[in-house]
Amino acid sequence: MPNFDKTGPRGQGPRTGRGLGFCNPRVVWDDFDRLEKRMQNVFKDPFFDDFNTARFPKIDIIEEDDNYIIYAALPGFKKEDIEIEYYDNRVVINGNSEDKAEVEDKKGRKVLVKEIARRNFSRAIPLETTCDFSKIKAKFNKGELRIEIPKIKEKQIKTNKVLIE
Known about the structure:
With 165 residues, the chain is an alpha+beta fold. It folds into two domains: 23-55; 58-155, Immunoglobulin-like (Sandwich). It is built from two helices and seven strands. The protein has helices spanning 25-42, 49-55; strands spanning 59-63, 67-73, 82-87, 90-97, 119-126, 137-141, 144-150. It has a four-stranded antiparallel sheet with strand order 1-2-7-6, with no helix packed on it. A three-stranded antiparallel sheet has the order 3-4-5, with no helix packed on it. The longest helix is centred in the first third of the chain and has 18 residues, at 25-42. The relative contact order is 0.14.
């Protein structure tokens, strides 16, 4: 049986305080910190790559002097499956792909294994600079979406004065 009178349960130095048994509050919070770090890293594991890509496509955002260019990797999607929206200086990319195989196909065959499933996602991308969304351009080619969004130059931004009564 370990002796917790002189040190904490993991040998972290002398105990501080009584009434908590062998539970040192500092040790408990250290455990929570380690648990939090593990939880943050769990979805970075390569095992979850397909899961994360299916839910949130990987993107690149490039800022040029006059515009933003967004590239999104959308393998397995068709042009008709993708919708782009914008509001409040954000671009939202939505995707909805249909199932590849039903439980029973048109020829009456049964599907025994079904790993290719319907995939849906929605990804909102906030932009730092005010953009001219009326001139947005998008192209989709071989699973890659390219969105070009022109920035509004400071001179083009209209200011309106409010009269104070």
